[in-house]
User: Which sequence fits this backbone?
């Protein structure tokens, strides 16, 4: 922030002086409070300070208020400082670009206009036509990350589904009390709509043991509820195996993100 407004209350002083400089004879503390969004008490205290500093004059601290030459000089100086600051901000914003990362599906060069698509939860860029496009900011090799700007259109992407399998706690028998055949069948058959399972998430030691026993991959393990919801938002279908009450964390995240899911009891 510019030096003129570093001191506490300096901006409020500037605003009050600016209003008083308009020479409205009917200007009251109540009017100032409404315009500045502060309390009448705060206005009163600031006016008292401005009088003490010699920036305004007033009879008994009440309206009408008059700005002094010192006050005018102060407002001019601060206004110039404010203008310089806002000009520098606007200049920065004019050169600011929103940048998005993607994976280059082929070799790309600066200023290429590329098509964007989502595959297996990853955003890719190539020279083929897609509903969404972007502009390459710098050269990129195939398979490497590429910086994009000026994104337009809509990336074709459907939200995935989540199947949550709740398995018994170790107290209730753990993996020995699980219906392993049921869990394996769900993984192989996919979601309710017939889509294949893209990733497997686990939460809890029993879940890890069950998934490992069945020879299934463990793709998501840490912060599993949040990571599962994030993956589903990117179009992936997730099988989440969790222990006991851990299912509540999954359902909470999925409901918040409005992601379609179903819960299955994985016990015998």
Assistant:
């Amino acid at each position: 922030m510019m030096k003129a407004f570093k001191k506490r209350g300096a901006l409020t002083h500037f605003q009050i002086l600016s209003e008083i400089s308009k020479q409205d004879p009917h200007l009251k503390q109540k009017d100032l409070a409404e315009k500045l969004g502060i309390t009448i008490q705060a206005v009163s205290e600031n006016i008292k300070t401005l009088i003490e500093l010699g920036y305004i004059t007033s009879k008994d601290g009440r309206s009408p208020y008059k700005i002094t030459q010192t006050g005018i000089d102060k407002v001019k100086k601060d206004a110039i400082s404010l203008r310089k600051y806002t000009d520098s901000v606007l200049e920065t914003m004019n050169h600011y670009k929103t940048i998005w990362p993607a994976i280059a599906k082929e070799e790309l060069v600066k200023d290429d206009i590329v098509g964007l698509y989502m595959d297996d939860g990853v955003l890719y860029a190539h020279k083929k036509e897609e509903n969404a496009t972007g502009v390459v900011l710098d050269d990129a090799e195939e398979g490497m990350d590429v910086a994009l700007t000026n994104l337009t259109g809509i990336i074709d992407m459907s939200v995935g589904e989540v199947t949550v399998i709740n398995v018994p706690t170790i107290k209730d028998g753990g993996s020995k009390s699980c219906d392993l055949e049921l869990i394996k069948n769900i993984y192989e058959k996919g979601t309710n709509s017939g889509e294949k399972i893209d990733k497997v998430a686990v939460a809890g030691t029993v879940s890890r043991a069950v998934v490992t026993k069945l020879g299934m991959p463990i793709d998501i393990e840490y912060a599993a509820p949040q990571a599962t919801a994030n993956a589903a938002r990117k179009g992936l279908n997730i099988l989440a195996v969790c222990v006991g009450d851990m299912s509540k964390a999954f359902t909470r995240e999925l409901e918040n993100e409005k992601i379609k899911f179903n819960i299955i009891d994985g016990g015998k």
